[in-house]
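README: folding subset

This subset contains proteins for which both the sequence and a predicted structure token string are available. Records are stored as plain text. Below is the entry for Acyl-CoA dehydrogenase (370 residues), shown exactly as it appears on disk.
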Amino acid sequence: MITKDLYERKELRQLVRDFTHKEIVPHLDQWERDGEVPRELHKKAAELDLLGIGFEHGDLIDSVVLTEEIIQSGGSSGLMAALFTLGIAIPHIWQSGNEDLKERFARPAIRGEKIGSLAVTEPGAGSDVANIRTKAVRDGDFYVVSGEKTFITSGCRADFVTTAVRTGEPGYKGISLLVIEDGFTRRKLDKMGWHCSDTAELHFDDVRVPAKNLVGEENQGFAQIMRQFQVERITMAVEAYATAQRALDLTVNWTRNRETFGRPLIRNQVVSHRLAGMAQRIDLARTYVREVAARVNRGEDCVTEVCFAKNAAVEACSEVVDAAVQLHGGMGYMRESEVERHYRDARILGIGGGASEVMTELAARRLGFA
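--- output ---
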């Protein structure tokens, strides 16, 4: 399914909405308790070509549509992280043009047969990608990898991990990407939110990785990572305003049906005005993020605008989910309330893909302010 015009994207929205209502919403609470989504869900999504969007067909705008509809139809940003980890695991492989790697890793992930993960963050580096320490030393037809990664999405379930390693000199010039399949240990991490998305700490102790698993050229990994960060950050911005919209929708419904002092809660001016303010923040963020996404999709250089988009959407989401819990009252604090999940899940959006402070610093540098 190649979606290019408005009609096709409308059809995509309906397809994703139906998939979410049928395959996700009835089971999401259980997956939150399980700490992961089943592999079968990946296969069901693949049967509808949803995992291939942005790779075998479709583009970034189609991915925006997909993200909006899953969350606004009752999914969550945590569900997106679990089901669509291939969105950060295989882009570097896909763009490298290496048909062997695409056939062994990318296409099986698109078919829902394998789960991929991306390992960049380290305990001592965080957002400072240029200073990663995990080493990969060439030994004949292999690289010997030693080091550790942390906060790795889908790291427990991953069949392969696209891993940032140091193959050269200190700094950004000495980083490469290797696809590592096995030989390392994993430790599952407990988190505040995104409970249905497993997260792991990975340890590499002289792991031998075939040299043919090198993605692109040696010591060119930093540039590969930076290019993909733009798409990842737009995706997280979409998750933010979509989460906010879902929280608003739930809150409007709650306040219409909840009576206090003999009338619906929404009839109180302080409530209706707060809802209006929430809607305003969401609409402003959504409009800007969509425009920046269109520019990224056209291949324009808009790193500064991507930083603005992510921060603006995250700030809007943070304010809206907080207000949603408040307006739900005591029920908003209960685990059985959907807004409680969105409140927890939203907190990572200002950290993942580059913390808000990092986004601000990067924008300042690009603008010549720092």
